[in-house]
Structures
1.
Amino acid sequence: MFDDFFIRALFAGIGIAFVTGPLGCFVVWRRLSYFGDTLAHSALLGVTMAYTLDLNIAISVFLISSVIALILIQLQKKTNLPGDALLGLLAHSSLAVGLVVIGFLTFIRFDIMGLLFGDILAVTTDDLIIIWTGGALILLFLKLIWKPLFASTVNYELAEAEGLNPDRAKAIFTILMAAVIAISIKMVGLLLITGMLIIPAAMARNISDSPQKMVIFSIIGGLLSVVLGLYSSLEFNTSSGPSIIAASLVLFILSLFKIKQSIKLKN
Amino acid sequence: MSSENSTLVKLNNAGFKQNDKWLVEGVSLTVEKGKIVTLIGPNGSGKSTTAKIALGIYKNIEGSVEKYTNKVGYVPQKISIDWTLPLRVYDFMLLTENIKDEAIDEALTLTGVIHLKNKNLGNLSGGEFQRVLIARAISKKPELLVLDEPVQGVDYTGEIALYELIKRISDTLNCGILLISHDLHTVMTATDHVVCLNGHVCCSGSPMDVAKNNEYKTLFGEQASQILSVYEHKHDHVHSDEGEIKKN
């Protein structure tokens, strides 16, 4: 069944959508979209490390992204620079270093377009195993830290005062972000991963009145985007990442009509 | 009651410094089960900081805090909630603990906002939101309640009812309350122990002791002496909820 590249891509995308749905909600709630971008840009460095040291791409990307996240936390403590400047600094310098290193590795042929925008042909059965087991672990950890993470997203001091240990939850969440980028990089590409996190969640926000509903709609939105995007990628011979993100944009635009309706009802 | 097992939180000479400036220093106080301790003092005197020290929100403090309970309900003075979150009153009630539906309904009824249960939190008025905050804190049946200006934005009659509710909660749940209030009248009638802050503890004791203190009079001026006269007038008895007179 997994002999066909398209079926593999489809299952990979479905696995990714189940994870990006709930994580994306937290990215929107906690205003972490630039943080996600930074981790994704640093993933290029992870890919080059995977090729040079002959490691698995997902594991290598996960390690590098986690290191970048730790560096960011340290820089936030030690410097007076605003958060967005630090994020920009890390995002672009790690992307630049990654590209320079690729330039040196002349003995390996890189598919730069595939790295940046995703490549469904590249998904192997091993990748499927990594996506589904990694994804299940990410969701399990997210379930475990849900209460403190959500409470501190609403109000940090309430969570801290009532004994929920929000700092630990935040640290684990950062690792989960690195992990979700690691498992989705082949499929969506490093320039568009944050889109996969944000756009279905933003669409879900438009049609939800409770956090649980937003998570569920975000997963459904992600799944629809993957299926629609991959079929159109096959049909029109376009890159998989942009096709999936474009499909999620269509869903987002449709969700805007729902807002208009509810505003009309109020008036 | 022996002080050892009824103590909920104890501050020993505690203080907190931010950017080399003391927000508050040298605070010692104890909150016990069934007792109300009130912090008073002018703006910037360190009332909220003291509450946050007691709650363990500030980590690098001077002195020490001994906390003997993890069942804490907190009503912060300022709360900024990001409306990118779709959050109903009901979801907010479950924020830090999974509480049974009956307990949620009971708490919302007590604070008079049960009709808002399925409303979006972002659409509430200031007073309504304050009532929801109090309901959330008491619905957990906490052992320690920390209330930082809990009735701000609530209309006058509501304010009295909420203070009565707070007093009743301290009696029925036998929980300790650390209350911050700018309403001197309430403070002087419903409190067991008053701590008057002005960057440090300027005086503390029973409401009566504090009201007689000269530093307290300088801090609060005219209003303070009026309260004193009110208080002295009826200091031989207290009124129960039903209005009947009880001898001290």
2.
Amino acid sequence: MNLLKISWANLKDKPLSSFLSGLLMTLGITIISLLLLLNKQLDEQFSRNVKGIDMVLGAKGSPLQLILSSIYQIDAPTGNIPLEEAERLTRNPMIKTAIPLSMGDSYQTFRIVGTDKKYVDHFEATVGQGTLFQKELEATIGARVAEVTGLKIGDTFSGSHGLDGEGEEHGQAQYKVVGVFNPSNTVIDQLILTPLSSVWAIHAHHDEHESESVEDLEEDHDHEHEHDHEHEAEEAREITSMLIKFRNPMGMMIARGINNNSKLQAALPSIEINRLFSLLGIGVDTLRGLAVAIMLIAGISVFVSLYNSLKERRYEMALMLSMGARRTQLFGMLLLEGLVLSLIGFVLGLILSRIGLLLFSMQAEQNFHYSLNDISILPEEWLVLGVAVLIGILAAALPALGVYRMNISRTLAEE
Amino acid sequence: MLQSHQLTFSYSPTKRFSFPDIRCNDREAVLILGNSGTGKTTFLHLLALLLRPESGSITIDQTDLTQLSPAKTASFRAAHVGIIYQRPHFVSSLSVMDNLLMANYLADKPQDKDRARELATHLGFADHLNKKTNQMSQGEQQRVSIARAVMNKPGVILADEPTSSLDDVNCARVVALLREQSEQIGASLIVVTHDQRLKDEFSNQVIL
């Protein structure tokens, strides 16, 4: 028998109103925790991958789309650009490095990206087993890719057209796995990297094959077509985009020049990501406001249920006072009821938000191959605990103050 | 032993009470009879020092209660006075057992489960110890409140209309148990009532 036991018994005695108060508290904390977790992990993922990339050069279109597809590998590419022109534009003293990327194919939804060693160095990724790709049709795969697809060194596979894994297979040319990267928690984990030349080779085959199949139907144009195609493959080599690092911030000036004076587009990740986050931010702020409102309502619910039950329990309180209880003791007992609800809400909220994150992560992994499964407790969550405890205690304290005003004799005699 | 001397109390200038002196030795019982409005409950609350008298003194076991500070009064009452109210009241969320142990807990005494079980057996509600109090009949509840009043073996037991809501059978049983328990622990028993059925049970009577 102690105060905590009496408080707990009182909560259990009113299961429905305790449940409602606890539920509201849990819900509020779940939403806030989930937002904090998502915000932190998205922010980390985004800033880790954008680090060191000052500009992206690609085909005209949405700058955000260009950034998302080239840096984060989560949107469709904007289109292809001629390698020659890209190289000409990046032959500039302000530009430190320019990493070419070529994409459009995938293997089991993992993107196949044609690039060179600079891309790997940029993310500071290291090869765990085997070697880095060197020759045409050699591929080094990310840790996640190896894990999910089960590809091993020496295995061969053929990519399929498109990024959703439902495109037609490029059956003739097979990639050969020559290495697997160590996990780096960057976008490389979910990519299949190969030399640029592989992508050209594959698509050359592909185009040839395609033109052969239409040969019979379009006999008249046969010659012309073949010629066109060869011309394309040999001379106008294309890439999807280039990731560019400046020597100094003045490099930003190049972006405007490119956008105004060429057929290409230059997008600045810092600006686009800020724009994206400020768009997301409106939603996040709204949800956070909603969660705080729910927590406040939880507080009001604690207040109302305690206030009502105290009216019924006045005689009990007077009785306990007449049996030797101190007023501070009873006050503490009532505070405990609010506190216990807050703590239960906090613990359940933490658990539910983790479950929510894992569900979200499964979804994100399936669709974008991003995993967000760091479920450790964030420092901000201790702040949330503080707020929850404060709400619980305040909500209980207001009605509980009545204990100090109670006239024992009159309350006992009223009955 | 309980003794009162020239107690007066007023709720307002027009509603004044002065009470006869009473004296009740250990193992003795005093019945205070009075009709409604004669200040029976007020008198009992004064004796328990739930109310402060305007003048006069109350002595329990050689301690003058009117000289104690409010905090001391509460702890003295918890240890030395057991009170039984007209309608049995409990902490409704707790079991019968916990309600009994609460008397120990609030008086800062060790929680004596054995004594609670012993009393329950003796007062005939041993089967109900794990029930909530509102699952019991009025007679049973009143017996639980007798057990609660004697948990700390107080020197004085005060009972406010302990039988008014009971039928004749339960009334007789409750009175017998009250007397028996107070004699067993050597307490002074003071019963305040308008219940005429109790008249013949007590030789020592005070009319208000």
3.
Amino acid sequence: MLKLDKLSKTYATGDTALSQVSFEVPAGQVVGLIGPSGAGKSTLIRCINRLVEPTEGTITLGDTDLARLQGRALRRARRRIGMIFQEYALVERLTVMENVLSGRLGYVPAWRSFLRRYSPEDVSRALALLEQVGLSQHFNKRADALSGGQRQRVGIARALEQDPELLLVDEPTASLDPKTSRQIMRLIGTACRERNLPAIINIHDVMLAQQFTDRIIGLQAGKVVYDGPPTGLTDAVLTRIYGDEDWNQMRGEEATDEAPRTPEVDLAEGI
Amino acid sequence: MQAQHAQPFPTRWKRPPVLFTHTVWRRVIYTGALIYLVLAMQSIEIDWQRVYMGLDRGWKFVEGFLLPDFTTRWHDIRAGLIESLTMTLTSTVAGVLVSVPIGIGAARNLAPAPVYLACRGIITLSRSFQEIIIAILLVAMFGFGPFAGFLTLAFASIGFLSKLLAEDIEACDGSQIEAIRATGASWWQVVNYAVQPQVMPRLVGLSLYRLDINFRESAVIGIVGAGGIGATLNTAIDRYEYDSAGAILIIIIAIVLVVEYSSSYIRRWVQ
């Protein structure tokens, strides 16, 4: 279980990215984190595994306070938290297998990882995960030889190779087409249910968030302005999170076709 | 649509000047620069008689080049070449071995501030002296011969390679480093898994380029007594044996060409 208590982050520039964020995520729950650009979604996720240093507050995973850890203890905590990135963040010149096995780096000594001598369990787990995400043919290919959807599958396998207690997901579908986006979201959802794994998915697409998460947290200017079931995202709530917009139109369009509006239509609208 | 506007849009557009935005100042600065250039050119003194004498000697050199004599001094040339090639290879290998740790230490995104400053200091020291000056100093310290040459070239290689390697490390894709850190990897593992794959092609390319430079430099520093083909060349010129000197120059050109072509082939292969 993950518990955030009064988490705040102020950057050195004086910008407040998060103020007094508190919530709990029980085991197995998939949380969608939505909000406008710059609301602090990425900062929140990165504070949890300390890629960004929080200014105040506590982050409790199991019974460890993540916000206070340093050095080796921090690395031991990080290996319990899997992370999936926006632009996949695979190491492009390494093979798919090396990318997946890098999920074990927090567990193996440096000389073993340097010589790529992973234990039989690590190797078979990696191959099983690649099979699960549908990439069993590609394990010796270089990561930059894969398509966007395939790369994100490798990203998922890398995070699961850590055998994590928590999954942090940062805009997993931002650079993927609608169909692949759905497949990726479904894959993440299945993985979480199978392992009873809690997840925080930071996502721009409200429709995807509603469809694939158990709970929605809405962030606006660093504050939680909505915390509830996906069905509770009424027009009033969306306006509170994002500001004024014709939300009905968004729903209607999303339901009929998902093609982005062409600039021509935008121009006509302006006149 | 145009009819709605009271005034038609302007039809002419010019890119605003980037450097001197004020029109009068721009003209003053450009005219001043031109006047300075003309005055400076007039201050050059040319002794045309001396140039004419030199032409005669230069022509002898061209003749020597056209009819190179490989045989008369072949023993000296061979010995010089072997010495030069040995110096080149050993100094490049030594230079690469030392510059990798210094380059990593001089990368701001990997090294803590004191290490960074120390490594940048070493780089600045190595880069502030031209090879010939270092060679004169080391020849005075270690005597004539290839050992002084080896030290000179290795020292110069360190500054060159570490600086460019450090810059390449700093230009690495941060998200790949972040992803590896997020798995709980230690510093060594981050270097091995996230940084090394990104900079390896460039490191190989730079090392080969340095090999090429070191060979050319070995011909120059030989003139100040640091051994190698440069010493042979110097002797040939001192004895007015322009045909032997021509032969040496042709061999140097041929070797540089071979290194150039093979390095571009190897670079493509490691990409």
